[in-house]
Description:
A hairpin with an 8-residue loop joins strand 7 and strand 8. It contains 15 helices and 15 strands. The termini are far apart. By secondary structure, the chain is an alpha+beta fold. Helix 9 packs antiparallel against helix 10 (about 395-405). The strands form 4 sheets. Strands 5-6-9-1-10-11-12-13 form an 8-stranded mixed beta sheet. About 40% of the residues lie in helices and about 20% in strands. The chain binds adenosine-5'-diphosphate, zinc ion and magnesium ion (MG). Adenosine-5'-diphosphate (ADP) binds near residues 7 and 219.
Amino acid sequence: MNYEPVIGLEVHVQLKTKSKLFCSCSTEFGAEGNQHTCPVCLGWPGSLPVLNEAALKLAIRVGLALNCKVAERLKFDRKNYFYPDLPKAYQISQYDMPVNGRGWLDIETRTGLGTRDSGLEIRRIGITRAHLEEDAGKLLHEGIADGSLVDYNRGGIPLLEIVSEPDLGSPQEAYDYLTALKAILQYLEVSDCDMEKGSLRCDANVSVRPVSQEKFGTKVEIKNLNSFKMVQKAIQYEIERQTEALVNGETIVQETRLWNDAKGTTFSMRSKEEAHDYRYFPEPDLVPFTLSRETVEEVRKTLPELPLERAKRFIKEFGIPEYDAYVLVQEKKLANYFESCVREGANAKLASNWVQNELLALLNAKNITIEHCAVSPHALAGLIRLVEKGTLSGKTAKDVLQEMAATGKTAEAIVKEKGLTQVSDTGLIEKAVEKAIAANPAAVAEFKAGKQKALGALVGAVMKETGGKANPKLVNEILINKLGTRSS
Ligand code: ADP
Ligand code: ZN
Ligand code: MG
């Protein structure tokens, strides 16, 4: 029997407000422990929560971008559980009247395959809901011999929980969904989306079922996933584990499991029987309220161009391949950089390649972000123009880029200083080609015997002779020409 996976994701994202969801405490990251606290977020008796309007608007912003039905009536509820990260012993969340109801997210599902030749392949993933709630405090266990410490600075920071329908069909698709969702959140400027700082978190729900069966299998929830790659790996592991169990005639128990990244396995944290009964009930200190359609429309007017729209525009406006466009737009800053580069006069296809390959490699090697790169879009456009004109070979241009990053100089200045101009003088190249042919009779014979590879040695010899400056396209043409005419 064949089994297929069913996957749904729950993403928690911290909304980037100045103050917390129900009090005026700062949300700033990295402060000393428990400095950003007050009677409200510490849950002192008699304190009253007041909803942060900015957080509500950010939530609506996300809801609209995810095509959700934004609620007309909203309510907050208490989700009760006893744990030291929660000073009130309940979390203010939303149960049956969330701010954002059903919606969807279109994702490109081909990105993982790396095929570049056909069009965008869009799959629509259902969004169940996206509701507002407050974050919990943070427990610190490490390096503390006796007990644990708790930091309530995080407690009360606004979170949006975005729940997907069980529409994802593979670990890759889950990865692509997260990538697309994160890109949208970044475009919306609603969150830092930094998994390391915990401003973006994800739990994965996985089940498997016989391919012919309509009813879903029993799901397992996986927590402790600190990167998208971990989400992908954990889902893959869980699919294999569950499939094997079913093949062996075992039943899957509904439970919460944790991912152990070092071992590459999941292990049981608690079963359904041990699961919390949250005893949700309406938060009496925050009355249900009506959200005016004007407010929603006001928020809608401020929505920016979103990644998928931008990819479609790049394809149409700049004529770059669909795959390139989609990959580029996932990182807003990279896409901005690319777009500036093209506006500065660079050839779009070349710019797309240079930004995605050489520039990214440079940033990785230097371990810096694009804002800290010494090469401006204007400067890269200058370099690309020299490549396009044939002044620089691709290889020399890569060296020039390194130099630009190190010195902040323009490509033109470096080329002038070092006399790097590519030799496109056919007379000069012809002489070097003749010399190479004369000096490498073995390679010539091999080439004539049909060994294409032998050409490489001859090209190398010409490049050496010209100090690496010869235009490689011309070298190839002239070489083949000369070798061809001699053999006939
Ligand atoms: P719970 O009540 O346990 O939180 P929900 O119905 O709220 O469960 O679903 C939580 C997440 O689990 C959602 O993202 C949903 O798409 C996903 N999900 C629900 N049922 C399944 C299933 N059988 N297999 C995989 N994922 C599922
Ligand atoms: Zn507070
Ligand atoms: Mg749930």
